[in-house]
Amino acid sequence: MFLRILMLIVASACYAGNAASEEPAIPSEQEVIQFQTKLGVVTFRHQMHAGLSSTECTTCHHTFKAEEGPVKPCHACHEHDKKSADNAPKAKTVFHTRCIGCHEYTVEQGETAGPLKKKCKLCHVK
Predict the structure, then answer these.
(1) Residue 37's domain is classified under what CATH number?
(2) Which of 1, 18, 82, 113 has the greatest number of beta carbons closer than 10 A?
(3) 37-70 confidence digits (pLDDT tens)
């Protein structure tokens, strides 16, 4: 429940749009986001990722369209522990696939990236 509320706040705050572009600005309180998980706290450096030259908001916020309003929180479609009614994968599956997949791709391109698979404790800190 806490995570759903946090994601809703994040999504709502992200829509404080930037007049110079269609990409919403990230509010200062959302530059670093922490998620409580069973394995420990995951810290996501939202502003750092948004500042990467190869990353657009729609890379992660795949349903975002500025003209349609605020960014929807991930958990609006991706449930915590099961597939949703519309067959969207579980949040855990999506986060692991999206984050680890991007880190692996970045390393394959010869650049440095964050933690890779099978190194859970690099993201999940107790």
Answers:
(1) 3.90.10.10
(2) 113
(3) 889 999 999 888 888 867 788 888 888 887 887 7
